[in-house]
Structure formats: C-alpha cells, structure tokens
Amino acid sequence: MSESTADSPAIGPFEGGFGIGAAVVGVVSILFGAFAGYEGYMGGGMVVQGVEPMSEPLLQGIVLLAFAFAFGVAALFVGAYMEPGVRGDQGH
C-alpha cells in the first residue's frame, strides 16, 4: 500500500453529497416506476397529463416501470461507486 492511499481518509458509499443525491434520485425513480406499473395494471390513466394515452394501459405501465426501474438502479450504482471528487489537497 502506498503512502498516499494509507494516509487518505476512507469514504464509504453514500457518504458524499453526490452519492446521497444519486441515492435519493434512484429511490424516487424506483418508487415512480412502481406507481406507474401499478396504475397501468389497474387500468388507470396516464401519470403525466397532456400526453395521448396508449391503447393498452398495462403496456404503458410496464414500459414506464422498466425505464424508471433501470434509471433508478443505475443511479443507485453511481451513488455507491462514484469517486467523491477531486479536492485541492489530494496528493500533497
């Protein structure tokens, strides 16, 4: 282990501001996907007003669930594994 890694403070997942923000975006996106999937399963209307609804609300719910879930999982991975950023005192 080099000197710079031995002396650097350990930062875990979701401890930086960016990681926490990405985790919040991921959780909200997954919850939105679950809500859209439920509304589609129940035959509810479009979640976003002003858009022409699809002929099959179940298909609409499945598509929104898939996109929101994929975006949410990606945001959680980014929040967990992204480097905290470059500070001015690193490497000195």
Topology:
Blueprint: H1 3-7, H2 17-41, H3 57-81
Helix pairs in contact: 2-3
- Profile the largest sheet: none
Number of strands: 0
What Rg do the Cα atoms give?
20 Å
Helix content: 55-70%
Based on secondary structure, the structural category is mainly alpha
Which regions are unreliable across 5 or more consecutive residues at pLDDT < 50? none
- What count of structural domains? 1
Mean of residue pLDDT?
73
- Please report which band the strand proportion falls in: under 5%, 5-15%, 15-25%, 25-35%, 35-45% or over 45%: under 5%
Series of H and E elements: HHH
Shape: rod-shaped
Quickly count the helices. Answer: 3
How far apart, in Å, are the first and last alpha carbons? 17 Å
Short description:
The protein is built from three helices and no strands. The chain has 92 residues and is mainly alpha-helical.
Commentary on this structure:
The chain is an all-alpha fold and 92 residues long. It has one domain (14-81). Helices cover 60% and strands 0% of the residues. The protein has helices at 3-7, 17-41, 57-81. The longest helix is centred in the N-terminal third of the chain and has 25 residues, at 17-41. The chain starts with a helix and ends in an 11-residue tail after the last helix. 18% of the residues are buried. The mean pLDDT is 73.
